[in-house]
Amino acid sequence: MTDVDRRDFLMGAGFAAAGAAVPTEAAAIARPPKEMPPQAVGMLYDSTLCIGCKACVAACKAANNMPVDIPEHLSDWNETTWDSAEDLSGHTLNVIKVYRNGTVEQKDREIDGFAFIKRHCLHCVDPSCVSVCPVGAMKKDPVTGIVSYDPDACIGCRYCVYGCPFGVPQFDLNNPFGKIAKCEFCRHLQKDGKVPACCDVCPTGASLFGPVKDLEQEIERRLAAPAGTPYRFPRGKLGEDRPPNVGTIPSYIKGIYGEHEAGGTQVRYLAGVPFPKLGLPTVGPQSPASLAEGVQHTIYYWLIAPLVAFAGLAFLARRNAPRPDADNTPKSQGGRS
Amino acid sequence: MSIAAPLRRNLVTPTTLVLAALAVIGFLFIGMRLIYGLGAVTNLNSGYSWGIWVAIDIFIGTALGCGGFSMAILVYVFNRGEYHPLVRPALLGGLFGYTLGGMAAFTDLGRYWQAYNILLPWHWQPNSIMFEIALCLLAYTAVVWIEFAPVFLERWRFPAIKHFLDRWMFVFIALGVLLPFMHQSSFGSAVLVMGTKLSPLWFTVWLPLLFVVSAILMGYGVVMFEATVVSNSFGLPSEHALISKLSRVVGWVTVGWLVIRWADLLDRGVVSLAFAGDLKSWTFWIENALFAGTAVVFLTPAGRASQRASFLGAVALLVAGALYRLDALIIGLRPVGNWIYFPSLPELMVTIGIIALEILLYLVFIKMFAVLPVAEESSPRTADRRLP
Ligand code: SF4
Ligand code: SF4
Ligand code: SF4
Questions:
Q1: Helices vs strands, H then E, count in chain B
Q2: Could you confirm whether domain A41-283 is CATH 3.30.70.20?
Q3: CB under 8 Å to B110, separation ≥6 — which residues?
Q4: Farthest CA pair distance, chain B
Q5: pLDDT per residue over A107-141, tens digit each?
Q6: Is residue B63 within 8 Å of residue B321, measured between CB atoms?
Q7: Per-domain residue ranges for chain B?
Q8: Residues paired with residue A208 on neighbouring β-strands, in sequence order
Q9: B31 in contact with A, Cβ within 8 Å
Q10: Beta-carbon pairs below 8 A across chains A and B
């Protein structure tokens, strides 16, 4: 290698080496995950109890002043009669979807069966949407853990839509003054001590509201009981004195969706059909926000690295930039520059 | 050595007219978007909330504007004064790449009338990578204008301001290297939140490093591309000697980039995904082949000697870097739900219009201001500067 060759090579190698300073282990660089707020409120959606009546979808629309959603291909037979939202959208915060397989004979069976699934915000313990929002329009309540949205702060960058691991926030693209639509756990109702609309109207207790701690115990009780055991399923709000839905324990698949996903969420799911089949995305246990923020905080720790870099660069630039006075000082012998 | 001077050619040519027409069409659609909303113009959907306006106009556009940044690293940090004639044209590219990138970002904001919230301290959310990028981009755009200001001042003769700027220019030069390091790497960090929503072929903790180094590479690519095109189409003295020297540096940096990229892929054991035969795996191979091809051209004496080969190398590098960004932002995405995205015609026309405007402004500026090295200068200036 000539001298110049070596310098060029070193520049390439330098970039490669600069990277070696970053630990390869994703876990090593992530910041510690956030903890569940002490008085976190949550929801349990038990797919096996859901009868697909969509009362929760209608109640959600009413409670949040959202128009009904009628997809174009259904508008022939359904003009304005009822909401037939097929997915979350700019004006649908909550939707019931169906899983269908083969002959669709039996509920909550994977093969030749069917099942219902409810989709809305899971109120993550360490929410990506809160972490990514540049203007703090997404906020997590430190006490209840409700993830709220403030349209007056939002600039509509849609980074929360991009980043949410569960595909929840929706930007209303068809409205020139569109905003983000996302379940805020009916925080306006909760403020007055009321139960979130979807849980309030659910006839079977499939959508059940309550403190996360109590819901976790309820989940354990259901999972511990053998299938077929008679069981009084609470309705509305856990611990409230509504008459329960009396039934029997179904055969649940293993796992509680939302317990570990993306660092844990305040909404939990039980089901008789594997979660991925129901359209719930497979998400790892690490909260994506903790990794992204960890990397960023490592690089920008107290802005030390940028400030040191700036000092060094300023020194080099001062030394190596053409002197402004080079034109007319004796320093530049041999001609003008 | 050569000194810079305005080209003094006709401003109205068939090329500039076509560019202007494209820009007008693009801006009509921007107007439509601002009045009727994003959905009226774009094919964005819930699965792909960011489309080509973000991927091309901002992520790729600003990387193409990194010429000034890349050359500053070489000239000021590594003290290679011989490349100085390439700095001004490179800065000019950055000027428009960043200014129009910022404009595209504004157009893309769903609630643009509240965009100023990002400047209000009580809204600041310092954990947000987007927040850091936004402020850094704004600051850098201002810095490029300041770095470029002497060119205007020379023409309009404001000696007092020029003297002040000359004195403090080193501060802006330093910022001009630091800020792109920050936001170009943050573009990579911005993707880190995707986790499982991005194919493991692209998702890695090394994203910030891969993004910033590929931005530097694209900066060099633009400088080489622009130097060749401009000197050929305006019959200026060829800068091939300088370009071919530069290409060796670029070749090694490209090798460095590929080493990081592949060491990480092998380390995580995800290379098998590249054989899935789907669109993702194809673009993955095209992207890597282009990077590797560039390295081969730039590191073989024959490749460097041939003006045509090094030009093609520069083009390959630009396409490779652009494709890498497109892959990491859109093509590599695994959205929740069965969403697909392909830009609509109006959406494409906006992007084309913005690119056309960039080229148009570039052409107008090199004809009006002293940007390009045209006249031969007798003395070797770099040697002088090193005298005590
Ligand atoms: S599910 Fe999505 S929108 Fe809801 S809190 Fe989590 S990241 Fe935010
Ligand atoms: S779209 Fe609004 S709420 Fe979502 S990240 Fe951007 S500013 Fe925040
Ligand atoms: S909690 Fe309220 S906003 Fe959320 S899904 Fe239920 S009804 Fe809708």
A1: 15, 2
A2: yes
A3: A154, A155, A156, A157, A158, A171, A173, A178, A179, B38
A4: 67
A5: 999 999 999 999 999 999 999 999 999 999 999 99
A6: yes
A7: 2-381
A8: A44
A9: no
A10: 278
The pair of three-digit structure tokens given for residue A98, joined into one six-digit string: 């169906």
Tokens representing B363?
A: 């052409």
Structure tokens at B169: 């220019």
pLDDT tens string A209-250: 999 999 999 999 999 999 999 999 999 999 988 999 999 999
Say yes or no: B106 contacts chain A, CB-CB below 8 A.
no
Question: How far is it, in rounded angstroms, from Cα B4 to Cα B370?
Answer: 5
Token couple for A38: 């002490």
- pLDDT band per the 50, 70, 90 thresholds, residue A23: very low
Proximal ligand: closest to the CA of B134 = 2
Tokens at B58, concatenated: 């901002």
The per-residue pLDDT for range B328-338, each reduced to its tens digit, is 999 999 999 89
Ligand that lies nearest to the alpha carbon of residue A92, given by its number in the listed order: 3
Structure tokens at B168: 């403090």
Q: Where are the alpha helices (DSSP H) in A67-186?
A: 128-132, 159-163
Predicted ipTM > 0.85: yes
Global pTM value:
0.90
* Chain-chain contact of B123 with A136 (C-beta, under 8 angstroms): yes
Ranges of chain B whose pLDDT falls below 50: 1, 377-388
Specify the fold of B2-381: Formate dehydrogenase/DMSO reductase fold (1.20.1630)
pLDDT number for residue B11: 87
Could you tell me if A43 and A207 are in contact, meaning their C-beta atoms sit under 8 angstroms apart? yes
